[in-house]
Structures are given as C-alpha cells and as structure tokens.
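Entry, Tuesday afternoon. Goal for today is a structural model of the target with coenzyme A bound, before we commit to ordering more compound. Inputs were pasted exactly as handed over by J.K., no edits. I checked the ligand SMILES twice against the vendor sheet because last time a stereocentre got dropped in transcription.
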Amino acid sequence: MEMTIRDLKKEDISLCATIATSSSLQDVYGFTEMGWKEKLEKALEQEENLLFVVEYDTSIAGFAWAHPVGAFLCAPYLRFISVNPTMRGKGIGKLLLQEFEQRTSHLHKDYFLLVSDFNTEAIHFYEKQRYERVGALSDFSVVGVTEIIMRKKRLTS
Ligand SMILES: CC(C)(COP(=O)(O)OP(=O)(O)OC[C@H]1O[C@@H](n2cnc3c(N)ncnc32)[C@H](O)[C@@H]1OP(=O)(O)O)[C@@H](O)C(=O)NCCC(=O)NCCS
C-alpha cells in the first residue's frame, strides 16, 4: 500500500468533511458535514492556509489544515487534523504532522496547536511527536471544555 501526500483540492472537500465528522469531537463541538464543507471551502479560498491530504492506496485517508503564522501572528499553528477511523494507527497522522512541520520549517519558529482536554488519544499522539503542554484555555470553544495549548520546539542546529 502506498501513501502519498498532496494539496487538498476542491473535489476532496466532501470526503474530508466526512472524515472530520467521524470522531468523538463531533458530539462536543456539534460538527456537521455541511458545516465542515463550508469551512473547508472558505479555507481553500484563503491562500495562506495550508491544506493537504494523505492518499492511502488512492483514497483519502486523512487531512490537515494549518496556518503558517496562526499562532501569535508569527508561528505555525495546526488548526485541525483528522484520519479516517478505519485507517488510524498506520502512521497517517504522523505523516500529516510531519508535513505541517516541513511546510513551515522555513519560519524557524516553534509549532503550536490546541487540543481538547478530553481528547486523550490525540494528546498521547502529539506527545509522542514531542509536543508538550504549555498552557490551557478553559471554556475557550465550549463551556466546560479546556483547550490544552501544545508546543513543539523547533530543532536548532
Ligand atoms: C489523532 C489522530 C490524528 C492520530 O492519527 P493516526 O493516523 O491514528 O496516528 P499514527 O498512526 O500516525 O500514530 C503516530 C504515532 O502516535 C501513536 N499514537 C497514535 N494514537 C495514539 C494513542 N491513542 N495513544 C498513544 N499513542 C498513539 C502511534 O502509536 C504512533 O507511534 P510511533 O510513531 O511510535 O509508531 C487520529 O486518531 C484522529 O484522526 N483522531 C480524531 C480527530 C482528532 O482528534 N484530531 C485532533 C484534533 S486536535
């Protein structure tokens, strides 16, 4: 099976919206496929966004959405990442995360993201890729949920 990574295209949006709404996050944040389609369509229109997918044996297995200076207007921010539930545990999430870091490494800044406190699977996944908890935002997106701020220090040579 071959994995390839490429930019997200307009025709991928529908499948990516399905993948985005196939996790437990949906229940808490009220994600809908239509809502995600609209979000991704808008995101694609804004050139500065980084949107890319992993194809696993010709079908889309996951996608990521990032902004090069989405953190503090100066550092890379991973807005969202999601892997098709049937394709998890095959290294696809790791590939997407590495792509985010590679595409923004020229900025020479640390990498940032937010993850919900109840999303322990994702927190473990990020910790394995050397992201550390550096702060918390209570009631930020949803009352009762704390968003953990995670940061990966860029490698200095
Ligand atoms: C989090 C997510 C992106 C991980 O994707 P994935 O393709 O299953 O992860 P990978 O197979 O690439 O795993 C990479 C590494 O993380 C580890 N890992 C993945 N999930 C893990 C978990 N639940 N607990 C511990 N380690 C985990 C893997 O063991 C692997 O380790 P290795 O590098 O030593 O082999 C995926 O579970 C997902 O889409 N979740 C739903 C959406 C979501 O929560 N997104 C995050 C929003 S902030």
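The first helix runs from residue 13 to 20.
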